[in-house]
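REQUEST FORM: STRUCTURE PREDICTION
Request ID: SP-0412
Submitted by: Lab K.M.
Chain count: 1
Length (residues): 454
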Amino acid sequence: MASSQNPFWLRFLPTSVRTKIKCRPNLLKVLSNTAWLFSDKILRMGVGLFVSVWIARYLGPEDFGLFSFGIAFVSLLGALSTLGLPGVVVRDIVSDPKSRLETLGSSFVLQIMGGITAFALLLILIPIFRPNDRSAINVVAIIGLTLLFKASESIKYWFESQVQSKYVVWAENAVFVSIAAAKIGLILVGASLFAFVWITLIEGVITAVLLFAMYEWVGGRITAWRFSIACAKTLLNHSWPLILSGLAVMVYMRIDQIMLGQMLNDKAVGIYTAAVRVSEAWYFIPVAIVGSVFPALLDAKKTSEALYLEQFQKLYDFLVMIALAVAIPVTFLADQIVGTLFGAEYQEAGIILSIHIWTALFVFLGVASGRWFLVENRQFLAFQRVCIGMVINIALNWVLIPKYGGVGAAVATLISQAVAALLVDVTHKETRLMFRMKLRACLLTRAFRVQYST
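STATUS: Completed
RESULT:
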């Protein structure tokens, strides 16, 4: 008989499946957490894409391109504001629950400092990149203020460590739906570009407030958090390679938009961003799945190395199948998708989308393997991998954008993602096993016998 604590969706499963799942409480907890994350991201993908498309059509390629440039520029320093702490904090809370208040308090203070530093750097860099473009400087400065509120994400780390992401989903979705409605209202009243810029900042502020309120509501006490210099040093000692990795990731995820804006114009950025919005809409899938199974992977590591690696292989297999299920149909329907969503002004984005969508395969693998680097405490290897991808992306963008525009940027991103998420693994002894596991997943076959040993 189902307990009152069982999630409501369990009753809709076949009896045989329901019985097996109910006997495995840890699996049930992971599936429930994943379901909440998926519901959050699906809502964001659906409503977010709808509103984003409407804004793109309303603003037109040039203003939409400037707006997208501002978001991309701020994203470059987003990793500095979080200091690479998300995975480290979750890992430390799971490994040492008794020190959770000290871990949360120390990470919170560190991220406040990181947000201030990141915002200051934005104010220094944007006049250098766009010295005579007052609009671009103002857009970046306003959106950049959101970095000051990133410290609230310490709450998310706590809920993730407890596999209770539903509370974060409630808070963030309440804000998301309200802001989406406000953006639609701005379109209907004929608001200017800067109205959308300001509401981006407002969304960040309200989200931070609600996250803290949700933590207090479930019984947490922020006043109980404790800052410790020793704990802060330990966190930074483990996260500094992830800070650099995060910066490098954002560079090679967003540098294409920055370089298009610098080397061509904002219209090119707008058209390219239209394709990227559709392509990246699917990236929530690996984040939700990997985030939910991460505590289980940590437990498996403690139990058995073979079990731990077998679970990683299953994760790779599953993510690759999902990525292919997305990439193949989008490739053939890219022109129709862009035409239907964005209109004739953005038609050039079709071919860009048909290329860029294949980055999903390597992004999915990269998200999963990123947790392997964290569990194995090989953050510096992760940093090296990302740096190689970043350098390749910048170099290819520099060569391809002047001749091929957005298409060249998409090709550069795809190649750099493939190198960083898969091919670089061959170059290190510690990661060759991961390469074989990923290759096995990509080939959709069990023919490659992976020996779970180092």
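NOTES: Residues 447-454 have pLDDT under 50 and may be disordered.
Reviewed by: T.R.
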